[in-house]
């Protein structure tokens, strides 16, 4: 499953709020760049002030290239918490780290001009201020 060829899927478990139509931009994430997560959905449980987003991007070998928690209310564009039940359309932003973890790469050739993108798994979840999970999705992103 590629990021643009298949949807992000709900994580295993029970989550009261739905996240649908998850879109990650830019298409290829780069270190030091701002990332945007856009989604629609339905809230059956209110999102309270102090809610957080947990983001993890992981290589196939299990090494995390990004593992961060960010303030949902502060980093959501154009919304104010608390958010009561109802339909939702939200965009959240977070920064990629300036550098990635060490990798084993072949030495660049003289004709190589760009870093190739690699596909990694991504988990994105939202927790309320009381630490209860509201939503969680998993999918794939490309990182260069």
TrEMBL record:
InterPro entries: ML_dom (IPR003172)
One Pfam entry name: E1_DerP2_DerF2
Domain MD-2-related lipid-recognition residue range list: 8-141
Taxonomic superkingdom: Eukaryota
Name of the protein: MD-2-related lipid-recognition domain-containing protein
Organism in which the protein naturally occurs: Rhizophagus clarus
